[in-house]
Design goal:
With 260 residues, the chain is mainly beta. The chain has 3 helices and 14 strands. Helices cover 8% and strands 30% of the residues. A hairpin with a 3-residue loop joins strand 2 and strand 3. It comes from Actinoplanes flavus.
Length: 260
């Protein structure tokens, strides 16, 4: 069974009201992920990071679109219930920027197993904040990646006020699907694994939908979307991420259709 790195609506409701508001768009799936073993990010270090009110993360793809995980939302259609918070590492900062959603697009093939990506369209554009480009080939789908989020810092822990970051190494499909790890549960073509055999560093509950990224030829590029994992930072249980390169054409096409 896949253990998502998002939050149940009841858990999201306990987060500070200034930064979170309960949303009927929250997924009903059992949840898991927050950056475990991380350090605090500096203001402006990852300007495109987004916190979503249903207890997920995301990345600013364009001034009006946030790329997140399909399991964070319930369906495609009009939706004005989601609040996006961005522009700060401290969710309680008076400088935070907030935008309401007006539409959600969930990957049309999503059925709880793969195709775990979605867009949230904002009611008005965000200006003056850098966006995060997605990869369009597998050229950057290895090496060392950066993860970031406001999720739990330990399995079952509380959500964070300040953005945390960490680095994790690529884990090959063969290793990730071995009997010692996920025993064939990972969809090799659509998902990418990252983490340490010894555990200790990982995304966790509340990080779902956030980006996994690395340096490309011209700056940061997004290679993954936080999707699922067995617990948080457990040995031999790396994080499993939606492989953005596999879906890049579909993501770009959807963005165009949404005006982004």
């Amino acid at each position: 069974m896949r253990r998502w790195r998002t939050l149940l609506a009841i858990l999201a409701a306990v987060v500070t009201a200034a930064t979170m508001s309960p949303s009927p768009a929250a997924a009903s799936d059992p949840v898991t992920p927050y950056v475990v073993g991380g350090t605090r990010a500096a203001q402006g270090e990852f300007p495109w990071m987004v916190r979503l009110s249903m207890g997920c993360g995301g990345a600013l793809y364009s001034p009006t679109l946030v790329l997140t995980a399909a399991h964070c939302v319930s369906r495609t259609g009009a939706n004005t219930s989601i609040t996006a918070t961005l522009g700060v590492v401290d969710l309680q900062s008076s400088s935070r920027i907030t935008r309401r959603s007006n539409y959600v697009y969930r990957a049309p093939g999503y059925n709880g197993n793969g195709d775990d990506w979605a867009f949230i369209r904002l009611a008005s554009p965000v200006t003056g904040i850098a966006t995060l480009p997605i990869v369009t080939s597998t050229a950057y789908d290895s090496g060392t990646f950066t993860i970031a989020g406001w999720g739990a810092a330990s399995e079952g822990g509380s959500q964070q006020r300040y953005l945390l970051k960490a680095t994790v190494p690529f884990v090959s499909d063969a290793t990730c699907n071995s009997s010692a790890m996920y025993g064939g549960e990972v969809i090799a073509a659509e998902e990418i694994c990252a983490g340490y055999t010894s555990g200790g560093v990982d995304t966790c509950q509340g990080d779902s939908g956030g980006p996994m990224f690395r340096q490309g030829a011209s700056g940061w590029v997004q290679v993954g979307i936080v999707s699922w994992g067995d617990g948080c930072a457990r040995p031999n249980k790396p994080g499993v991420y939606t492989q953005v390169s596999y879906f890049s054409a579909a993501i770009r096409s959807a963005a165009t259709s949404l005006g982004g």
